[in-house]
Amino acid sequence: MLTFKAEVLKSKQKSDGTYNVKIRMTYNREVKRLSTNIFVRQEDLTKSFKLKNPKFIKEADTIVRYYQEVCARLQLDINHYTLDDIIAHLKGEQIKSQEIDFIQFSREWITHATIKGAENYTTAINALVAFLGQEELKISQLTKGLLERFASYINARREVKVKELIRQGKRVPSNRALSLYLGSIRHLFNEAKKHYNDYDRNIILIGSSPFENFKIPKQEATRKRAISADLIRQIYKLPYLYNSRGKETQGRYNLAKDCFILSFCLIGINSADLYNCSELDSNVITYYRTKTTSRRVDKAKMQVKVPALIMPLLKKYRDIKGQRIFNFYHHYSTADSFNKAINYGLKEIGKLIGVDDLEYYAARHSWATLAVNKVGIDKYTVHSALNHIDEAMKVTDIYIERDFEPENEANRLVMEYVFGNGAYI
Prior knowledge:
This is Phage integrase SAM-like domain-containing protein. The protein is mainly α. It has 16 helices and six strands.
């Protein structure tokens, strides 16, 4: 038999002199207690620590009756519930009555998230808050209709931004915000369902599915950043900047020039991997792609032979401490700050060669484009060289050990096409 009783524990006095009223639950000779929001003082209690203040007696009785009514619907004589099951159900019913704040849950989830790109979720929630005009949203109010209005808001905001960019004569970026924001909110909503719903105990605090009949638009294709072989040669041949003493400066222009060529010649290596890579053996760099290493069984392993053309750069930026291959981490505290410095320098280089808004990622795009369109490398080899995931081959890849020869042979052909014979070996 399940019984409830309000009680105060003499040994549990708080630092402010109050006691919390507990609800003692007894079931099948097992005893557990639930805290309440009732706090009493010594004068509210009898000498035997029973409640004597009528106000608190009434509040405690109300909680006990509520628990009794909730548990009466559980049919304890039929179902084999434990006391923990009952407590979980009671807590679930309490949360139901309080309503779940989606914004608050999302911010707490983001704070404790360990996945890469958590900042994207913050951006999405900030956009939702800006749309709502408030920092709270009951999860029951997150409906298909609200999502449609939010989508219209994002599109209208982009239109204003695009008009301003056109007026200033600046590049208009691809429209990815709507897909990213809505996808992030959908993920957060599903995380809330996982957190609050206990399907084993049939405790469903979030029963709605607003995304079931709401179609999130696909992302627009990423802006094509590839540049021609001639422009890559121009970047390679650009003169360095020197100070008044004839010594090469440590500025972002020189850094950008070298890192762009390093990336192109190392099969489009990302700036984060250039910053972090630490394994060099017989002129072969082994690295694990930062962007996807945590999501892949092979840890996104990649091996690239260092072409002869960039051996001087390998020596120029060598880490004398030997902890990494390059010394970039001595000058930039994070991979992000390193990437920003490169892109800042590339803006100056872009003006010199006539490329609007030149970016570091153009090296990667250019390598892939030239490999397919000019050298005749098949797309599957290019796909592997860029270290992308092939979903269709995910299981097969478990059994195959890559030797990276096809990717490096493709790089040899691309290098010789752009820089001529002798560039690779």
